[in-house]
């Protein structure tokens, strides 16, 4: 996780994911993370490895890690 911003009613968190290289990769990661309860939007960018997640509350990092693993990628350690 590289950044987290709280706004009324939502939390925006930016994660670093390694291994994404194309739009299909972005879609796979976005789809898996979107299945986590409370997630309202996900935007993955393969070029930077950044995945921006907006959720109702802070997410359990283990759940995000499991979703990224399920998509076939790796959640990078915190900087």
What does this structure look like?
With 79 residues, the protein is of the alpha+beta class. The protein is built from two helices and five strands, in the order E-E-H-E-E-H-E. Strands 1, 2, 3, 4 and 5 form a five-stranded antiparallel beta sheet that branches. The N and C termini lie close together (7 Å).
- Total DSSP helices: 2
H/E element string?
EEHEEHE
Rg, Å, rounded: 11 Å
Runs in which pLDDT lies below 50 for 5 or more consecutive residues are none
Residue-averaged pLDDT, rounded?
91
Going by helix content, strand content and strand pairing, the class is alpha+beta
Please report the total strand number as a whole number: 5
User: Whole-Å distance between the termini?
Assistant: 7 Å
Report the biggest beta sheet as strand number plus sense, adding barrel if it closes: 5 strands, antiparallel
Spatial shape: globular
**Quaternary organisation:** single chain
The amount of helix comes to: 25-40%
β-strand amount: 35-45%
Descriptive labels:
79 residues; alpha+beta; 5-stranded antiparallel sheet; 5 strands; globular
Topology (SSEs and partners):
Elements lengths: L2 E5 L2 E9 L4 H12 L4 E7 L4 E6 L5 H10 L3 E2 L4
Antiparallel strand pairs: 1-2, 2-4, 2-5, 3-4
Q: Briefly, what is this?
A:
The protein has 79 residues and is of the alpha+beta class.
């Amino acid at each position: 996780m590289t950044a987290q911003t709280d706004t009324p009613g939502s939390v925006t968190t930016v994660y670093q994911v390694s291994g994404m290289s194309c739009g299909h990769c972005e879609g796979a990661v976005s789809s898996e993370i979107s299945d986590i309860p409370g997630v309202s939007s996900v935007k993955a960018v393969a070029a930077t490895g950044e995945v921006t997640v907006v959720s109702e509350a802070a997410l359990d990092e283990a759940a995000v890690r499991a979703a990224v693993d399920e998509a076939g990628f790796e959640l990078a350690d915190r900087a």
